[in-house]
Write a structure and sequence with these properties.
It is a lipid-anchor; GPI-anchor. InterPro entries: Cu-oxidase-like_N (IPR011707), Cu-oxidase_2nd (IPR001117), Cu-oxidase_C (IPR011706), Cu-oxidase_fam (IPR045087), Cupredoxin (IPR008972). It is found in: Cell membrane. The protein is mostly beta strands. Helices cover 12% and strands 33% of the residues. It has six helices and 33 strands. Strands 10-9-12-17-14-15 form a six-stranded mixed beta sheet, with no helix packed on it. Strand 14 and strand 15 form a beta hairpin. Helix 1 runs antiparallel to helix 6. The longest helix has 21 residues. It is globular and about 70 Å long. It starts with a helix and ends with a helix. The N terminus and C terminus are likely disordered.
Length: 591
């Protein structure tokens, strides 16, 4: 009987690998077990969310056009969805991992994501998208490398380093959630983590003894590619490495015009790639700093992440004061001008051989215009909520894409206003009706008192303008119509606006939201529904075989774990199912 079990397991693995081999592009597979562990990143034991026992989780490292298979086992005590931030999920919003498209993975279940990183390169990250879980971890970096035949616009770096930074509380996500549900603000974070670790003890008063900090070891004279993502909750962070220039090279899938910064503001949800040359004398280690921006720095001193850059020939530990942050307490234009300086490298090739700038977005006629305005939280029906254009989004019981598939009526309304509501705010499942192959202009107007970062799933949009004050039609005269950066996450400064352009060529249902986790949790989001009206079109993959059911369709859900079903390559999954049935028959013969 033992040999029969061994044969069964071996045959299942062979079938699985055969199922993956039907695509022309290679497949890369990962196993994610999502669980709670106890960690003390700020010196206080607390519950964090780990992947395969690690916090942060492992880096997903793939190449353009790879198929990515991630089998996620949920061992938490609540529902789970994993979102792949910045991964465009071409033709397959089913794999996006947000409530508008997918039913959650129940506790003790596993579900297999399968998607292609089609025509993408760059630096991204993943995280759990439900229930404020990102505040407890569960995040990690996601790298898409160029194919070998596509040249990169810089010399191949000696090494590749990933860094995740973010504000952090010593309370876990369930406690923070209760605070928000009770109508209160979260208050000042307890610190900033660098790669899941607390600050180096650069100051004996501010930093207690015994905290584990991040050290990055490098070789003198070498140039490294350093990828940095702000995976935090709500705090914009200034990133800098003492005595080293940061040569900006890429952000969220687009190569940039290369220019040096001594520090760069990285807002919640944003990712950047720097080329950093180790050209110092290594008299000691150097500070790596991520400090809170746009706050009273005297009060927020402890909300500073500090690691060390260690040359292999270093002569001692880092000491002395931290490198200064931007001295712009009374100059609100410094950070915005820095953001405006980040431009598209129009001559570089991205994921394809043709130059990025061959897509001349500035000459395309706009077909739809939406002004999305956020304000400070308001009370709606006795609850403290955030809004977008006067609507506080309510996640549907039946995900929008699933409701469309099964023609469930009343799951959502396709009536999101093009301009902010003038009446009282309301709670609704209101969705934007995007026109397939249209060109949408979205103005993000931030009338709150803190920076808001907006992210759109399924797309890279063009950031064409930003300024203080209220946007008007005349503001279009300031737009950058040539080399505005294409990315998936853009900051909007308080009392200011940011304009983006989106080419709606990716069919599906796509989330547009604030990345500030507290505001997102309270309703500051919506979805853009993009449908190809042509009959029998091939612009979207069919619903995956392993789709979960919930809401009005919950009775369709089978009770067993269905993680062996696959989603892309329908013929491959049918063959796989057939092979598994053959295995079952063979096993029954042994009994």
């Amino acid at each position: 009987m033992a040999s029969c079990s061994y044969f069964l397991l071996l045959f299942i693995h062979i079938c699985f690998l055969m199922g993956l081999s039907f695509s022309e592009d290679p497949s890369v597979s990962y196993e994610f077990e999502v669980s709670y562990i106890t960690a003390s990143p700020l010196g206080v034991p607390q519950q964090v969310i780990a992947i395969n026992g690690k916090f942060p989780g492992p880096t997903i490292n793939v190449t353009t056009n790879n198929y990515v298979v991630v089998n996620v086992r949920n061992t938490l005590d609540e529902d789970l969805l994993m979102h792949w931030s910045g991964i465009q999920q071409r033709r397959s919003s089913w794999q996006d991992g947000v409530l508008g498209t997918s039913c959650p993975i129940p506790p003790k279940w596993n579900w297999t994501y399968e998607f292609q990183v089609k025509d993408q390169i760059g630096s991204f990250f993943y995280f759990p998208s439900l229930n404020f879980q990102r505040a407890s971890g569960g995040f990690g970096t996601f790298i898409i490398n160029n194919r070998a035949i596509i040249p990169i616009p810089f010399d191949t770096p000696y090494g590749d380093i990933t860094i995740v930074i973010g504000d952090w509380y010593t309370q876990n996500h369930t406690a923070l959630r209760r605070t928000l549900n009770s109508g209160k603000d979260l208050g000042m974070p307890d610190g900033v983590l660098i790669n899941g670790k607390g600050p180096y003890r650069y100051n004996n008063t501010l930093v207690p003894d015994g905290i584990d900090f991040e050290t990055i070891t490098v070789h003198p004279g070498k140039t490294y590619r350093i990828r940095v993502s702000n995976v935090g909750i709500s705090t914009s962070l200034n990133f800098r490495i003492q005595n080293h220039n940061l040569l900006l090279a890429e952000t969220e899938g687009s190569y940039t015009v290369q220019q040096n910064y001594t520090s760069l503001d990285i807002h919640v949800g944003q990712s950047y790639t720097f080329l950093v040359t180790m050209d110092q004398n290594a008299s000691s280690d150097y500070y790596i700093v991520a400090s809170a921006r746009f706050v009273n720095e005297t009060v927020w001193q402890r909300v500073t992440g500090v690691g060390t850059l260690h040359y292999t020939n270093s002569k001692g530990k880092a000491s002395g004061p931290l490198p200064d942050p931007p001295q712009d307490q009374y100059d609100k234009t410094f950070s915005m001008n820095q953001a405006r300086s980040i431009r598209w490298n129009v001559s570089a090739s991205g994921a394809r051989p043709n130059p990025q700038g061959s897509f001349r977005y500035g000459s395309i006629n706009v077909t739809q215009v939406y002004v999305l305005k956020n304000k400070p939280p308001v009370m709606i029906d006795g609850k403290r909520r955030t809004t977008l254009s006067g609507i506080s989004f309510v996640n549907p019981a039946t995900p929008i894409r699933l409701a469309d598939q099964y023609k469930v009526k009343g799951a959502y309304k396709l009536d999101f206003p093009t301009r902010p509501l003038t009446g009282p705010p309301r709670m609704e499942t209101s969705v934007i009706n995007g026109t397939y192959r249209g060109f949408m202009e979205v103005i993000l107007q931030n009338n709150d008192t803190k920076v808001q970062t907006y992210h759109m799933n399924g797309y890279a949009f063009f950031v064409v303008g930003m300024d203080y004050g209220e946007w008007t039609d005349n503001s279009r005269g300031t737009y950058n119509k040539w080399d505005g950066i294409a990315r998936s996450t853009a900051q909007v400064y308080p009392g200011a606006w940011t304009a983006i352009l989106i080419s709606l060529d990716n069919v599906g249902v796509w989330n547009i939201r604030t990345e500030n986790l507290d505001s997102w949790y309270l309703g500051q989001e919506t979805y853009i529904r993009v449908v190809n009206p042509e009959p029998n079109n091939k612009t979207e993959f069919s619903m995956p075989d392993n789709a979960l059911f919930c809401g009005d369709l919950h009775k369709l859900q089978k009770p067993q774990d269905i993680s062996f079903a696959t989603s892309i390559g329908g013929n491959g999954s049918k063959l796989l199912l057939g092979l598994l049935l053959m295995v079952s028959a063979l096993v029954s013969m042994f009994h």
